[in-house]
Specification:
Layout (H helix, E strand, L loop, with lengths): L9 E7 L9 H12 L5 E3 L11 E5 L4 E4 L15 E6 L9 E9 L10 E8 L3 E7 L2 E7 L7 E6 L6 E8 L2 E10 L4 E7 L13 H11 L3 E5 L13 H17 L5 E4 L5 E4 L2 E4 L3 H14 L3 E3 L1 H4 L5 H7 L14 H29 L3
Parallel strand pairs: 1-13, 1-14, 14-15, 15-18
Antiparallel strand pairs: 2-12, 3-6, 4-5, 5-12, 6-11, 7-10, 7-12, 8-9, 8-11, 16-17
Length: 367
C-alpha cells in the first residue's frame, strides 16, 4: 500500500526544545518529505500559542480558554495529550445563559500548497450538551454534537480545499477540553512540530497515560523524533547518568503505549561560550552526546549526530560568523537560515535511511 492510499497521512511526531520552536528545522524537514511522499498542511497545533507560532497561520481565540501544560508544574497524571498541553472551556453556574460559547479562528496568510490544508480535526473530551460549529470563509458548513465521554475523541471535517479562514465555535452546558487541532491533507506524510521551551526531555511521564494513549491511538504515529540537549549542556559535569535515567524513563513510557513505533534521538548541536574572553565550544558536549548515543543504542532507538554533521567542535562559532549567519550570537540557537540548513541535512539523512531500508527489504524478498 502506498502512502497516498492511506485514509490518514503517515505521521511523524517531532518533539524538541527551543531549537525547533516556531516550526524551525521541522518545516524544512516536513517540506522535503512531503515533496517526496506527498501531503500538505501544518499538522498538530494547540488552541493558542504558548511557545509555538503556527507557521503561515494567524490563530486567535476567545478569552475564556484555560490552558494547562507540562511546563511550570511538578504534578503528575496531567490531563494532557500528545501536544503536552490542553485547553479547557466550561460553563459557569452563575451565567444566565444555559450554555457558554468559545471560539477559535484560523486565518491563512497565503495559499502556498505545502502550508495549505483541507482537513481539520479536533481532539477533545466533552461533557453533556456540547457541540462545535465550523464556519469556512464566513459560511457555516457543519454543526456537530460532541460525544459525551471520558475518553479523548476525534472529530474530522473534510473541507476539500484550503479555506482563507475558518472559525470553530464551541457551545457547552458543562465542559470541553481540547487536546489539539490538526490541519492536514487526507493522505501523504505529516510532520508535527511539538516544541517545549526550556526542557531537557519531553516529560511525557507527567501525562495521564490513558489520555496520551487514547490520542496516540487516534492519530496513529509511525515515527517519533526527540531533539533535546541545549538545556542540559550548561550544567557542566562529566557524568550524565542522571540525564540518562531521565531519557530512559521517557522512552519506556512511549514504548509501553506505542510499542511498535520507532524512536529517533537527535544529538545536541554544538554550543559555545566565552572563556577568558575567547569563544569556545562547551567542554562537556562530548559527554552529553555520548549519553544520548548510549541511551539510543541501549533502548533500540535510532540516533543522529547533529554535532558532527554541522562540523563538530567550534562549528556554531563558524556558523554564527558566516555571512549571512547560520547561528545566532548566543552561540546556541540557529538563525532561520541555519535552521533551514539543519532541516535539509536531517531530511537528506532520513530519506537516505528510508531508501536503504526499502532496498534491503527488496533484496530480502528477492525483488
Amino acid at each position: 500500500m502506498s502512502i497516498n492510499d492511506q485514509k490518514k497521512p503517515i505521521r511523524i511526531l517531532y518533539y524538541g526544545d527551543s531549537q525547533i520552536e516556531n516550526d524551525r528545522i521541522t518545516s524544512i524537514f516536513r517540506k522535503k518529505l512531503q515533496d517526496r511522499f506527498g501531503g500538505n498542511g501544518r499538522g498538530l497545533v494547540p488552541v493558542k500559542s504558548i511557545y509555538n507560532t503556527a507557521n503561515n497561520l494567524v490563530m486567535t481565540t476567545s478569552k475564556n480558554w484555560k490552558s494547562s501544560s507540562i511546563i511550570g508544574t511538578n504534578r503528575s497524571n496531567l490531563d494532557l495529550g500528545l501536544l503536552c498541553e490542553a485547553f479547557k472551556t466550561k460553563h459557569t453556574q452563575n451565567q444566565s445563559d444555559s450554555c457558554s460559547s468559545s471560539w477559535i479562528k484560523i486565518n491563512k496568510l497565503n495559499l502556498n500548497k505545502l502550508e495549505g490544508y483541507s482537513v481539520v480535526s479536533i481532539f477533545y473530551k466533552a461533557d453533556k450538551n456540547s457541540e462545535v460549529e465550523l464556519e469556512s470563509n464566513g459560511e457555516k458548513l457543519y454543526t456537530q454534537t460532541l460525544a459525551a465521554t471520558n475518553e479523548v475523541e476525534e472529530i474530522r471535517f473534510n473541507l476539500q480545499t484550503t479555506p482563507e479562514k475558518i472559525k470553530l465555535k464551541f457551545k457547552t452546558s458543562s465542559e470541553i477540553t481540547i487536546y489539539g487541532l490538526n490541519l492536514e491533507s487526507p493522505n501523504g506524510i505529516m510532520v508535527d512540530n511539538i516544541a517545549l521551551r526550556g526542557r531537557a526531555h519531553p516529560s511525557f511521564t507527567k501525562i495521564n497515560a490513558d489520555h496520551f494513549g487514547q490520542m496516540a491511538k487516534l492519530i496513529d504515529p509511525a515515527f517519533i523524533i526527540m531533539q533535546y540537549g541545549v538545556n542540559v549542556v550548561p550544567h557542566i559535569t562529566t557524568n550524565y547518568s542522571y540525564y540518562k535515567k531521565m531519557l530512559v524513563k521517557e522512552i519506556q513510557y512511549v514504548n509501553e503505549i506505542l510499542p511498535d513505533v520507532p524512536i529517533l534521538l537527535v544529538g545536541v548541536s554544538d554550543m559555545a561560550k566565552k572563556v577568558d574572553g575567547n569563544l569556545q565550544s562547551y567542554p562537556n558536549l562530548k559527554y552529553v552526546i555520548e549519553t544520548q548515543r548510549e541511551t539510543a543504542m541501549e533502548n533500540n532507538c535510532a540516533f543522529w549526530d547533529l554535532f558532527e554533521t554541522m562540523g563538530g567542535e567550534g562549528s556554531m562559532i563558524e556558523w554564527a560568523q558566516m555571512n549571512p549567519p547560520l547561528g545566532n550570537k548566543d552561540y546556541v540557537h540557529y538563525t532561520n537560515l541555519g535552521a533551514e540548513k539543519v532541516g535539509d541535512l536531517f531530511a537528506n539523512e532520513f530519506l537516505r535511511a528510508i531508501d536503504y531500508q526499502m532496498a534491503t527489504v527488496s533484496i530480502t524478498n528477492g525483488n
